[in-house]
Structures are given as C-alpha cells and as structure tokens.
Amino acid sequence: MGFKKNRIKLEDIANKLNLSIATVSRALDQNPRVKQSTREKVIQTANDMGYMPNQIAKSLSSGKTNIIGVIIPRYDEPFFIEVCRGIDHYVSTHNYKILISSSRNSFDSEVENLASFERGLVDGIILSPTHETKTFSHIKNVINAGIPVVLFDNIIEEMHGADHVLIDDKKAAFSAVEFFIKKGKKQIAFIGGAKEKKVFKDRFEGYKEALNTYNIPMNQNLILHCNSLDRKSDNIEINSFFNSPQIKPDAVFTCTDNYGLLTMKTLLKLGYKIPEDISVIGFGDLGLADVFVPSLTCVAQPSFEMGQKVAELLINQLSEPENINHQKKVITLDTKIILRESTP
Amino acid sequence: MGFKKNRIKLEDIANKLNLSIATVSRALDQNPRVKQSTREKVIQTANDMGYMPNQIAKSLSSGKTNIIGVIIPRYDEPFFIEVCRGIDHYVSTHNYKILISSSRNSFDSEVENLASFERGLVDGIILSPTHETKTFSHIKNVINAGIPVVLFDNIIEEMHGADHVLIDDKKAAFSAVEFFIKKGKKQIAFIGGAKEKKVFKDRFEGYKEALNTYNIPMNQNLILHCNSLDRKSDNIEINSFFNSPQIKPDAVFTCTDNYGLLTMKTLLKLGYKIPEDISVIGFGDLGLADVFVPSLTCVAQPSFEMGQKVAELLINQLSEPENINHQKKVITLDTKIILRESTP
DNA sequence: CTGTTAGCGCATTCAC
DNA sequence: GTGAATGCGCTAACAG
Lengths: 344, 344
Description:
The structure is a homodimer.
Chain A: H1 10-17, H2 21-28, H3 36-49, H4 55-62, E1 67-72, H5 78-92, E2 97-102, H6 107-118, E3 124-127, H7 137-144, E4 149-152, E5 163-167, H8 169-182, E6 188-192, H9 198-213, E7 223-225, H10 231-243, E8 251-254, H11 257-269, E9 279-284, E10 297-300, H12 303-319, E11 330-333, E12 336-338
Parallel strand pairs in A: 1-2, 1-3, 3-4, 4-5, 5-11, 6-7, 6-8, 8-9, 9-10
Antiparallel strand pairs in A: 10-12
Chain A binds a DNA duplex through helix 2 and helix 4.
Domain HTH lacI-type (chains A, B): 8-62
GO molecular function (chains A, B): DNA-binding transcription factor activity; transcription cis-regulatory region binding
Organism (chains A, B): Aquimarina algicola
C-alpha cells in the first residue's frame, strides 16, 4: 500500500472543527443543507490545511471518473492530433479529461486498449478503428457493459451500432477529381494508401465514379496504392511510380497531404512545373500544405470539428437519463476544396 | 451514484464457488498462497462470467493508479507529440498509461492542470513548462505532496529542484552557426521566437557566441525574434523581414523547423536560389524538413529519446523504496546536424 | 492454503 | 442543520 505522504482528508478537517465527515463533505459540495457559517469555516480550514479531494475515492463512490478514453491508430498523424484537440476542447468545458492511447494500427492492441478502459477507468470511449478492424464485437461488448462508445473515421458497415462521425470520403474525392476534369485534365492519377483501409477505398471509389461520370477511361498505370506505413517508404514508392516511363499524368489526386507533398517533391525533381505541367490535390489540409512551394491545393477535412462533434455525441450519451434504447446517430461532416498554387 | 450495469465483481465469483473474496482476489493475483486447482477454477469462472477488475477500486486500495500525467504547452507542435510518443513507448512496458493535457501556453492553466493531477489521479507527472512559467513553487508543492515530477524542455534555473531532461540549446545553436562560418558565410541571420522563452534565448546566446568566437560582427538587421504564436503570423513576420532592403544575408539559422521552412518559402518567392545564394538551417528535424524542396538541413533534436528518458527518470522515482533524499538528476541529450539540400 | 476483518476516502441514506 | 452508519470493489493484515 503506497501512501501519498500525509494527505489531508475530510476526516482531518472534521476533527479540527469538531464536525462530522458528512458535514464537511456537504459543505465542500455546495450542498444547501448546511449552515452558511459552517460552510465558510470548513472552506477556510480546508484551504488552510491544503486539502485536495481524492479523485479516486470520489470516483469509486460516485461511479464516475470524468475521464474519456480516446483510442487512435497513431500519434504521428496530424489528423488524429487535431481530432484530439477538438475532443479536448469540447470535453474540458464539461469537466472531463481525456486519456489518449494509441493502437499503433494493430487490431490486437485496439482490443487490449478497450479492455483496459473497460476496467472502470473511463466513463466513455472515443475510438478510431484501425484498418485491421473488420469486426465489431469487441466494441459491442464494451457498449453492452454500459460504457458508451463513439467512433470516428474509418468506419465500416458493421459498426453502425454505435454513434459515429465521418466525412463523405467518396463524395470528397469525387469533387476533387471533378474539379480536375472541369479544368480540362484527362490523365488524372490516383495515389492512395492501403486498400484495406476504408477511407482509402472510399476515396478510390469517388475517383472512379468521377471518371465514369465524365466518360474518361480509367488507366491502371495512373493508379498507385501505397502499402508502406512510414513516410520514407512512401517516398520510395511514389518516386518509382512517377519515374516509370509509361506514366504521363496531367493531374494527381492524392489521398493524404503527405502523399500530395511527396508527389510534388518527386515531380519537381523530375523537372515538372506545377501547376503548368501538372496539377496536384492533397487530402486533409493539415501540416504544411500551405508552406510548401508551391502550396498544395487540398480537400480540407474538418478534423478539429470532428473531434468536437464526436465529443459532443459522447457527452450527450453520458448525460442521458439512462442509455435505454439510445438512438444511434451518424454525423457526416462536409469537406471543401482549399485552392492553392498546385492547381490552376 | 451512476452504476455500470451489473458488473461482475469478486464477490459474485466468490459466491458462485463458495469461496471467500480474499481467495478469489489472491487466485487472480498470481498470489502463490492458493491451491493450484482453486486458482484454475477461479480463473475459469472469472472468464466465464466475464469478470473485469475495477481499476478504481484497485487504485483506492493500493494507493497507485498506474497513470502518468503529462502536461505539454500545446498539442499542435510535432516536438511535443514525439516526446509523448517516447514517453508512451517507455511507460507502456512498465504497465503505465499516460494522461496528456495541454496548458495551452498559459501559466494559469499549467497550475490548474497540476492541481487536477494532484487530486490523486496520477502516480507521477511529466511537465514541460510554458514560457510564462517563471516560478517553481507550484511544482515544488506537488513534489512535496509526494508526487514525483520530472521536467523537460524549457527549464529555467529555479526549477533545478526536479529531475529534468533537456538539450544544450546554446551549444546546438553554436555548432550550427559555426558550420556556416566554416563554409565561409559572413552575413548570418538569426530567426528565433519569443525572447522570454528559455530555449530561444539560449539558442540566441549560441548564435552570438559563435559570431564572437570567430570575430564576426553582429548585425542587428540580421536578427528577428518572431512574437506571433501561430504559423500564419510567423509567415507575415518572416516575409516582411526578408523584404526589407537592408538585409542581404548569405545564411539563415532558424530556431525551429517551421521558421526554417517559412524562411525558405519566402526566399524562394523572392528569387533566391538555395543553397547557391543563401543557406538555411532549421532546428528540430521533425515534420517535413526532408520533404520540402530543397530539403532542410537541421539541428536534430532527439525528441522521442527525450520522452523515453524523461519517462525512465519518473518510473525510477516511482519504484524507489522511498523518495527520501532523492538525488536530483539532470540529463542533457546530444543534438546533431542533419545535412540536407539547404546547405552547401 | 483459506477465511475474517479492517481499511482506502468519500458520498449518501437515514436518523435526530 | 448535523451526525452515525453504510457502501463503492478491492487489497492486505492477521488468524487459523
């Protein structure tokens, strides 16, 4: 039993003032059933003695910790950090804190993290599933255990049993490609990530649909699905893609900002002029899209807002009288294209 | 009193097996003082019944939460995220989790966050002080309350009462500027941030000392201390700095990667060739220093390692028999220059 | 090896 | 208005 020094507790205050613990507790709790003069005395002595309530004891007694658990696939992705900022921003005004952990893009780790949160440490959970996550039962279990879960990004059909927030990836990609087409582009390349990941699949769908809609034949040589997980390898893949002689795109739609920047880097090195010879659109609008020369036109994803929204959904569930028959909510946020120098 | 559904507890298992709660607890706890057959029965039933230990109850009883509180000045700075990754990496192997909160560069908020952690939620605290933080008493208080605190980055003298991890900012800046000088540069510009911030002050000292050492006169027109707090305003400041006609530097040392990238952006727009006309060195080596065209030479700061180290110091304190007369440790990590295209 | 008992610090019901 | 008693779920002495 490790004890934090000689912490002051309610009992100490009670003894000093010849009051009961209950009264001291009530006095500190804004409970009206206590004389004004007593309250003042209690508050005064509490301050003098340097009293700090024990959050753990409070939690055990009250059944709530005022902590929200957040599970993201990785830390080093500005998108997730922005979402976390949004979450933090919202919940902090409701007296909650967030406990962030990373699943490191591993399903097993996601399950582990959930289990750890289920041990009563958090009142609710916000989760962004990994691309390995194909099933929903681990999440369902937590919800059944009485802990609300709200999801964002990368949601698959099976998960529609929980509230979630996402953007319309297909539509967003469609509009970016449509933008190119309307500018007269014919050879539009697509650069995405691992095909198993829902968001990349959807964006690819949007790409295909745009081409279809405008009767532009799809060319497999203009399509790249990066499989690597770090930027260095991405760079290599993208490099060799554009170095292939068969490829002569006049526009590139990339599924992340990083892909967009790496694409521009590669193209510049190859002597292309952007946007004169070729245009590029990225996806996300975080990080340094606006710093690069030329700056990168992007599909802007409302990350911060997504965090706020997902937090709002969770807090709402937490303050509902009882989660009986909670009506599942799906929120789709809008994206928009931010025009910069990489497009005409 | 909000209750999590009908959670299985030790008592339920005990009842079902006609055992005492204590025995069940011991069986689940790897305690050797329990018959093998009993242990197996208990573990089996616990699994069958879907038992999840209540972390809060455990914490109250044991006096430790296995949570480390982390306070950083802001989320949207890759440096801090990297440090957090390092912390997480280290503590997760020691069965700890991290609770991150941001002081939003405000001293008051830092104090608040500390107080909140002092309420018994965390076993130890890792803190990176804001640049507003000029005093140490709020930290001292927490330490006196028996909660170990380890600091990193932006440490001032007064704080030497706590373990901390930092880099030698002055030396790092000195070596970068020395690098320029040895390449024959004479007009070396300095771009830093708010002068109140310790790290910027130290880097400026290093800059001055390098010039001094090599008998190069310092030119006030070549020095910029950015006062803004966001990238957009930084951009404006840097822009107007280089647009001033008096300025003709042949090299620029910047105190962050972002300043470095913004500087290159500005210079490229002005028609400079990098590194032919002018060289640039950034500081940090995070984010997209290697993606930019040209890629940015940097003083590399070992952020992830810093996180690991600071976590190690904290965990060590937590596992010491008693914090009696703990010998304060100061760890200085090495930096190195990563050569890229922005320098000859 | 197992059971009994007594906390951990606070909130809350029920008396007075 | 205030106090005494009970419980939150689990750990850890102390017995046996």
